[in-house]
Amino acid sequence: MVRLITHNILACHAKGCTQNNFPLQFKDASIELKEQEFNPDFLRNFLSRLEWKALVDTARELGDTSLPLEMPEMIDDEFLKNLHHVLLEIHVEEGAMICPNCGHSYPISNGIPNMLLAEHEIG
Amino acid sequence: MIPTPDLSHLTRRDYESVYEPAEDTFILLDALEQDADELRNMQPSISLEIGSGSGCVSSFIGTILGPSNTLYLATDINERAASCTARTGRQNNIPIEPIIANLVAPLRSRLRHAVDILVFNPPYVPTFESEAEDAQTTRNIQGAWAGGANGMQVTDLLLEQVDDLLSSQGRFYLVAVKQNDVPAIQERMRQRFNLRSDVVLQRRAGREHLLILRFQR
Ligand SMILES: C[S@@+](CC[C@H](N)C(=O)[O-])C[C@H]1O[C@@H](n2cnc3c(N)ncnc32)[C@H](O)[C@@H]1O
Ligand SMILES: [Zn+2]
């Protein structure tokens, strides 16, 4: 289950690829929605760890427009519920993640991303 | 008592390619259980296990902290291990995110000083260096134990990155055996990174003298 919370943490690490290597772009993503227990404290704590623009852009690419382009100053329950759904309930089960810089493709199979590189691609 | 994770879904076949929990796994669980209250009080946002194998340890951490309180990331170089980790998470209702990766390679840049709980039960058995290198490239069951010179070939690579990963309150739990030269590890981490450490548990299991090291700022 590659959820957007995890996608928000993965970057390309191919040899020489150190800039513009995040966020990876989903390709041919097949998505499942799975309900998760709502935990506002966890979300509040996690906000500072997020790359907001990467999250919003990725959610929009996957068809979810519930998050505002700027992180709001007032964190209310409605916002947290939307954030909860985007971060934790959208699961990418199949597809790939493509590096915006070098084009490397990281496959996702059965919900598990394969981030390994071949010997000659390791920096 | 925190219940040991349910592993009844894993079969002999799984354990042909994925490390079956053994004494080293269980001493690590015991060390985590011993710290359970402190770990809960930290309100950790991110737990990261490297080399999660069956997924037993990450599920146990999830049971200590609660499924929705923390993000549980787990890497393994062996893709079958990653799939066992996913299944064990589901079996125990802990949403673990398995990632097929070498140590923390794809996570490093985004997890700078962000990991609250870092755990590694590495391949710690001293072997010929070529054996460890082979295991690291074939990514099979051998990679679960083949540790090269002093059993430190893989662990050494991670030790260089621990300081970068740990949050200000972060802790790193490492499984080691006596042949790894634990005092030297502790001294190096203190001198190079100013990370203090304690041996929080040790025990003899058959021929192995197992220790759990806990590092923090
Ligand atoms: C001793 S087993 C521990 C498995 C499990 N954590 C446990 O305690 O039962 C070591 C694990 O580390 C994995 N491993 C070995 N080298 C690795 C590397 N470079 N990156 C990630 N995982 C690695 C192995 O595939 C194996 O699953
Ligand atoms: Zn790249």
What does this structure look like?
The complex is a heterodimer of chains A (123) and B (217). Chain A has 123 residues and is of the alpha+beta class. Chain A has one domain (2-101): N-terminal domain of TfIIb. Chain A is 28% helix and 22% strand. Chain A is built from four helices and five strands, in the order E-H-E-H-H-H-E-E-E. Chain A has helices at 4-7, 40-46, 52-61, 77-89, and strands at 2-3, 25-33, 90-98, 105-109, 112-113. In chain A, strands 1, 2, 3, 4 and 5 form a five-stranded antiparallel beta sheet that branches. In chain A, strand 4 and strand 5 form a beta hairpin. In chain A, 34% of the residues are buried. By secondary structure, chain B is of the alpha/beta class. Chain B has one domain: Vaccinia Virus protein VP39 (Rossmann fold, 3-Layer(aba) Sandwich). Helix content of chain B is 38%, strand content 24%. Chain B contains eight helices and seven strands, in the order αααβαβαββααβαββ. Chain B has helices spanning 12-17, 23-34, 36-41, 56-65, 79-91, 129-138, 153-165, 182-193; strands at residues 46-50, 71-76, 96-100, 115-120, 166-177, 196-205, 208-216. Chain B has a seven-stranded mixed beta sheet with strand order 3-2-1-4-5-7-6, sandwiched between helices. In chain B, helix 2 (23-34) packs parallel to helix 4. The chains are: A alpha+beta (123), B alpha/beta (217). Chains A and B meet through strand 1, helix 2 and strand 5 of A and helix 5 and strand 3 of B. S-adenosylmethionine binds at residues 19, 21, 24-25, 28, 50-54, 56-57, 75-78, 81, 102-103, 121-123, 136, 143-145, 154 of chain B. Residues 19, 21, 24-25, 28, 50-54, 56-57, 75-78, 81, 102-103, 121-123, 136, 143-145, 154 of chain B line the site of S-adenosylmethionine. Chain B: InterPro entries: DNA_methylase_N6_adenine_CS (IPR002052), Euk-Arch_PrmC-MTase (IPR052190), PrmC-related (IPR004557), SAM-dependent_MTases_sf (IPR029063). Chain B: It comes from Somion occarium. Chain B: Belongs to the eukaryotic/archaeal PrmC-related family.
